[in-house]
Amino acid sequence: MSRYGQEARSYALVILAVALATLLLLRALDRPRSPWRWAGYALTLVLTGLLHLIALSVVLAHACLLVAHARQDRSLWWKAASALAAVAGCVAPLAVLGRSQAQRQLYWVPAPDGWALGSLAQGLFASALGGGAVIALAVLARSRRRAPLVLCGVWALLPPFLVWAASHGEVSYFRSVYVLFTLPAWALLAGAGLAAASRSRKTAAALVATPAVLTLPDQRQMRQPFEHDAPVPLDYAAAADVIKRLHRPGDAVVYDRADTWKLDDGVRYYLPRDLRLRDVFLARTPAAIDDLYAVQCSVPDLCVEDEPRVWLLTQGTGFPFNAIDPAQAGALQRRYTVSGSRSVMGMTVSLLERTGRR
Questions:
Q1: N or C: lower Cβ tally within 10 Å for the chain?
Q2: What are the DSSP E strand ranges found in the chain?
Q3: Which among 3, 17, 65 has a CA at the least distance from the CA of 45?
Q4: 177, 120 in Cβ contact below 8 A?
Q5: For residue 265, which of 289, 245, 249, 287 has the smallest C-alpha distance?
Q6: pTM, whole model, 2 decimals?
Q7: What is the three-class DSSP state of 341?
Q8: How would you class 320 by CB atoms within 10 Å of its CB: exposed for 0-12, middle for 13-18, buried for 19 or more?
Q9: How far is Cα 170 from Cα 113, in angstroms, rounded to an integer?
Q10: How far apart are CA 338 and CA 351, in angstroms?
Q11: What is the pLDDT, as a whole number, of residue 358?
């Protein structure tokens, strides 16, 4: 949770919403005549869908539990159906809108092969060894009642399979972070397995301490500089420092937006607030249009003004003009030459100076 919280991601809230929805469903089944309990369950599922649509696949685990209880109380069929229909009605507009944007936002996610499911534990648990220990304990889970095991088993296993299967169409959704909401189920199953495998507190403590110690290298690795940017770490601070030291009043800037993710925001974060550079090809910011991507100048030649110097920030270490849009590169090359470049981690900071011809 702390790892993704550092990136201001919502996965901790998603896990909370899924766990709370499951708890409220159990409370509703304890007292099925209470409309308030069903309303609380439905509202929490709506919150889950608004936070992350894929997390609504937990409803399949809930459905298994509802079917088991409905055999004894047939009124549960219409009560559960009413709650889930209300959830579907609230979430449907977001699902339609999300579907229309999925290709543009997830174009970079590859379709998973057969081995992808096997490697999911590394991303899901942030440690292959830690994941293996949790799964091993989960396999040992036992309970006098079948329903809790079925609920947690379906919750833990089915969503990843469904996401894997759905990722062989136009859009791939197969990323470990999208199924982090299954972690509470794995924890419950591992706890049940720990209880079944240990006959004393000392044994239980040893079973918990051993993987905790063995996964310390993974914990340390996750906290290394640039680890969150793997496999392409970018040193935004170092790039900003180059500009800060060599900046002159009137300088402009061009950011590589062709093959990078938020390189512009990353560098701007480390620049002094009073150091303002005109973003040459920026037409509208993502915040202004409620989107992930900026709108860039449609005719680059018309957006280049009279700045004597332009900073060009690109990903990688190749020729900087090759990293940006060809039309933008042409507009710059007709007016500027590269007077110097400096490489930092994953990036190149180039200074362009005006040639005197237009």
A1: C
A2: 252-255, 278-279, 282-284, 295-296, 309-315, 336-344, 347-354
A3: 17
A4: no
A5: 287
A6: 0.87
A7: strand
A8: buried
A9: 15
A10: 6
A11: 44
